[in-house]
Each structure stands twice: as C-alpha cells, then as structure tokens.
Protein: HAMP domain-containing protein
Organism: Paenibacillus anseongense
Amino acid sequence: MLRNMNLMKKLIVLLILFVVIPILVLDLVVAKKLESITEEQVGNALLQLVRGSHLTLDRESSDFEEKTEKIMISQEIQQLASIPSSSEYERFEIFKTLDKYLSNYSTNAIRYSMFFSDTDKQYSFVPNSDILNNGIFYATDLNALSWYKSVSQAKGKGVLRVIDKFGYNPNNVKTVAYLRQLNSIYNGETVIGYLLVSGIETPLQQDFSPFDKYADGQVMLLDQENTVLASNTEKFQIGSTVSAAADKVEGVCKLKEAGVEYMHVLHTSEATNTKLLMRVPVQSIIIDHISVQRLVDWIMFIYFLILFLASIYFIQSILKPISRLARITNSYHPGRPLAISMHSESKNEIVLLSNHFIRMTDRLNQTIYDQYELELKHKEIELSILHTQINPHLLYNTLESVYWHTFMEGATESAEMIKDLSLIMRIGLSKGKLLIPVMEEMNHAEAYVRLQLFRYEYAFQVHWDIEEEAKKYLVPKVILQPIIENAILHGIKHMSQDGELWITVRVRSGLVMISVEDNGYRQVDIEMLNAILKGKENNRGFGIINVQKRIQLHFGSSYGLRYSHREDQGVRALIEIPAVLDENEWKQPPA
C-alpha cells in the first residue's frame, strides 16, 4: 500500500503509525501504570498511618484502663464492699463522698459515673441518670441497662460501648463510654458496682488529626459489631452501623459504593477489640497524578501541534518542491523547452536542484540544437571532402600516365620518382581510412625515403628491419614520414656518405614497436623534444606533435612517441602502439 502512495501520503501515514499512535499508547500505558503505582504506594502509606493512629487510640484506651484501675483499687471504692446497711444519713454521706471523689476525675468532655445495685431502694433520694450528666447512680434493676450484660460478661475488663448520653437527652444523642465492672480486691467474686467513663469520643476524635490532610477521607473507629465509636465525618454518626465493608480482611482494598470507587484501609486491634477504618475516594488519591497527567496531555497537544506545523513546513519546503521536480522531470522531452519557469533564488536545496535541472534542460536542449547543426555541417564537410578527393584521384591518374610516358622515353630514374610520388599520394589518400596495416605504412615510408635519396644524391644509407609478423597490425597512417624527415634534416643531411638511418619494426608483449634511429653528430636536446611531445613547448615541432596526438587519439595517452639518445651517437625515436588487427577491437577512449 505504501509503495503506491505519494510522498505526502506516506509522510502522514508514517507519522500516524510511528509517532502519534506509539506516543498515545505509551502515554496511556504509562498513565495507567503510574496510577496503579500511586494507588499502591498511597494505600501502603495509609495502612501505616491507620496502624499508627490505631496504636494511639489504644494508648488512649489504656489511659482509661489505668485510671479506672486506680479508681477500682482506691480505698473509697473498696470499702463499699464491707459497709453494712446503715441509716439514711450514713447512706447520704457515702453518696456524697463518692460523688466528690469522682468529681476529681471528671472534665467538661470526659465524665466519670458509677452505677450501684439498689434493689431495696435505700438510695431513692439520689437523682437518676436521666437528670444528671454524671455522678453516682443507683439502679433497682441493673439488667434494664443496655450496657449491663456486656460489661458483666467482661468480668472486670474494660469495654467500649455506645450509650445514650446521661441527663436531659430528648434527641437520644449517643456517646461512647468506657465501662468496667468494679470487683473487690479482697474477694474477686464480689461486685461492688460499675464504672462508666462517658464522652471519650472527644479525645478519640482528637487523635484523628493525622488524617486531616485527606479532606475527603472518612475515618471511623468501630467495635466488633461495626458500630461507630468515633468518626471524623457527619455521614457516620456515633452509634450508626457501617456496611459489610468493615468485615473485609485487614489491609487495603478497593470497593465501589454508589458509583464512587473507594480505597478501604482497615486495621484491627486485639487489645481493645476495635477496628479503625479509613475510606478515601480513589479520585482524591490520584488527584495529583491527574493534574500531572493533564499537564502531560497539554504538553502532548502542544507537541502534536508543533509536529503538525513542522509537517506542513516540511511539505511546503521539501515535498512540494520534490513533487514539482518530479513533474518537471516527467514532462521533459529532450529538445523541447519546458513550460515551467524557475523559482526565485532560494537556499532550499530542493528548489536549487529544481532550478539547476531547468538550467540543465536548457543546456541539453542547446546541446541538441548545436549537435544538430554540427551534424549538418559534418555532412557538408563530408560532401566537400568527397569533392576534394576528385582532384587527388585525377592527379594520381595523371601521374600514372606521366610515369608510363617517361618510362617509355627511357628516363627511368625520373619515371621511378614519379612512381614513388604517386605511391605516396595513394597511401595518403587510403580510401579515407585512418588506420592502415604496417606494410602499407612501410611502403609509404620507403617511397618517401627513395625520393629523399634521389634529392640528396644518395648522401646517406638506409637500413630496414621489419618483422614479418608486424606487417599485419594497424597503425595510424603517415606517422613515419614526419619522423624520418626530422632524422634526415636535423641528423644526417650534411654528413656526405657517413649518414645512416635505421628503421626497425618489432612486436613485443602485445605492442608494435617502431624505431627510427640516425647517427647524426649534432648535439640534440632530448628533454626539449619530449617536452614538445607533452605539450610543454608551444609553437615548435608541429610534425611530431601531430604524430603524437593522432596516436593518442586512437589508442590513449599510455601510447605514443618518445625520444632518446643512441648508444654511440645520434637520436632514437620510438613509437609504441597496441597490436591491433581490427580498429573496432580497440575502444579505449583517449585520455
């Protein structure tokens, strides 16, 4: 699918597949993981907090236990077990003494009270608990009291119970009391009375202060029946019963109630048989995480916005120029001018490439036009050459006629000169070929040498040494004549009968090696000759430069002509060219 899309669609698809979707999935996974980690860490922290707070509440109960223990073993209480029935005055004094004794322990919040059995109604003068908030109370039937059964079963151990407040209480307001049966220290089976410490929810609730930082947290101290003993919320009043959530195993769990998910943290104390339950909405626990996640979402939104703007810029600055370049490339036909103009100068490499391509097409079109014109001119030159070849052919045929006429008249030497001149012209023409066999080139050279011998009255000698195998290989035509001419003119021309010329042709290691040597006595600057061949000396040696260039045009810069000194005296010119039988075999371009 991607293969058939253009670059713009590919960019959008790749951005969605490899940038947008991975980032969104990663954000979702990380958010869920962080939320889970946050809940776990907060849950563990809350469990430690609840455990610590419960220990504080247990110490509060321990304080009441110590105080009630002190009251129970006091002389004022223990002597009640041995006081016989007395007069009403004496009973009043006993009541008055006990009431004064308990008043030392009571405060505005914590109130100490005692209940005694009075089946004979001897203390009927004492106000009951419906009138007084605390004090000494006598009951004709202790079983009628709601708390009596649980306290008597505790056998002197303290228990926490929710009871109605003493005194005027039309609304049945509840309070939490620490209740304890007072036994004789002399006879453990003798029950003296019952001590009640009411209003202890106040110090218990003050111990909930560590939970104040959790504004939505609900903290409750429960008894074994899940009755609320103390709470920091009005939703759960003292004496109300909490749902079965309090029956969960001690620890941390999540429960959903009325569509709201809560984290429940429960700790049970074996010392006081109470439970401390904290309920916190999960939403409030991860509120900081939600705030951070919102910040991350905004950052992602800004990032995607920047990515979108960057993509638009990328499309405008890269993809559109590339698309334009593709259209230009597709619409271009060699020789036809483009109908698209260049952009204004820009540093954008794609725009520069597009402009360069347009310039290149203009140059290519111009080259095509120039090539067309060149071909036309080449055709004209070919026609001109064909016309000019008519005159050499006419001259060659005329020389043949003169040769036979001269030979018939008996001027043999002149006839031979005419014949050599005709041979030179014939080989020079060579039917328009540029490469000819070594044999033909040697014939041409021999004809030229015979003419020079006649001209200089045989003032020098010529030695020919040509391998038979070398005669079949091809060489550029007329490359020996300029070299032989230089050897005669600058080497042996004025040596009378002492001048000698050696022309040798060999085939070695795939090379045709042609050597022209003379024994000229004049000192020759070989370095200058080689510099001329390398193009370092201008306006000199046109003949040998022509030979060098024609060899290298055909066979490359690795081949050609070079000069050196002979071992005795004179100069040696050496031509090296590859051994080629067919000019189509050699396709190496010239350097």
